C-alpha cells in the first residue's frame, strides 16, 4: 500500500456518498442543484430529501411537518439544566451539552433505518426549542410553548421572540436553513461519520459534529464575520482595515473555502436576498461596509465570500443576536449529519487512518531519580 500524507486530508477521498456533491463548483443535494432547491423548496422538504432520499409530495410534507410538531416540546428536565448552566457559557456550548442531555429522553425506540430517521426528525425539532428556551431564560423571559402548523423557520422565530414573524423574515430564515442543510464531507460531517463508524449512536455523532461546527474555521465563521463588520463605523474604515489585515496575513472571516476556489453559490444566492432585506430595513450603510470588505479580498487575494459572510449580516439585519448565528446553522445541519449517519451506518467501515511518526527515536526509560 502506498502511504500518502496530505495535511488536513486536502484532496483525499475519505468515503463515498449519495447525499450531496460539489461538482465543478456546483452544489447538489441528492442530484438537485442548490439554486433550484433554494428557489422551489423549503427546509422541511429538504429534511425529507436528506432522510428519505427523495423530495416529498404534499402528503409526505404534511407528515414531516406533523412529526416535527410532535417532537418540539422539551422534557421538563431540559429547562431545569438550562437554568443551571452559567449565563456566560456561549450558546454553541449550551446546544452541544443540551443535545447530549436531551438524548437521555429520546422518545424513539429501536435502531433500524426508520427509527434513525425518526430520531433525526426529533433532534431537528428539539434544537430550535433548546436555543429559544435558553435565549429566553437568559433574558428573564418564560420559554414559549410551540404552536402546531407553523413552518420550521417561522416556529424558530416564534419560540425565540414570542410572536409570529412576518413572511419575509421567516422565508429568509428558511432559505438559510436550506443553504446550510448539507455540504458533503466538511469537518463536522466527517466528525459525525467517524463517530458513527465506531457503531456509536446518532445523538453522540451529532453532539461531536456540533463541537466541530463551533470553530471559526467552520460554522463559527458566520458569527465571526459579523463581529468583524460590527467593528467598522464606515465603508472607508472597513476598506482600510481589510487591506492592512491582508498585509498582516490575517484570515478574513467568511471568506475562502477548501472546496470552492472560485466562489460559493450559496453566498451568491443569499447575498441577493440580504440586499433586499437591507433596503427594506433602511440599513443600506451595512451593504457599503459589506462590499468594502468583500472587494479588496477578491482584488488582492482572489478569494471569494463563502455562505457565512452574507449569512452573518442577514441574521444581524433580521435582529438575531450574534450568539445564535452558529446554533441556527446547527438546527439546519442536523438534517445533513443525520443523512450521513444513515449512509455511514449501512456498509460501515471503521475510520482508522495512519499517522506519520515524527517524534523521538526509541529510548530507554531512566530511573525516576535520574530524570
Ligand atoms: C475555510 C478555510 C479554512 C479554507 O482554508 P484552506 O483550504 O486550508 O486554505 P488555505 O488556508 O490553504 O489558504 C490558501 C491561501 O489563501 C489564504 N486565505 C484563505 N482563506 C483566507 C481568508 N479567509 N482570508 C485571507 N486569506 C485567506 C491563505 O492565507 C493562504 O494564503 P497563502 O497562500 O498566501 O499562505 C480558510 O479559507 C479560512 O480560514 N477562511 C476563514 C474562515 C471561514 O470563513 N470559514 C468558513 C468556511 S465555509
Taken from the alpha-carbon principal axes, the silhouette is: globular
Note the main sheet: 3 strands, antiparallel
Count of discrete alpha- or pi-helical segments spanning 4 or more residues: 16
Strand order of the largest sheet: 1-2-3
Q: What percent strand?
A: under 5%
Bound compounds: coenzyme A
The tally of beta strands, per DSSP, is 3
Low-confidence stretches: none
> What string, H for helix and E for strand, traces the elements in order?
EEEHHHHHHHHHHHHHHHH
- CATH level 1 name of the largest domain: Mainly Alpha
* CATH superfamily membership of the largest domain: Citrate Synthase, domain 1
Which whole number gives the mean pLDDT? 96
Provide the helix percentage.
55-70%
Features:
371 residues; Citrate Synthase, domain 1; three-stranded antiparallel sheet; 16 helices; 3 strands; 57% helix; binds coenzyme A
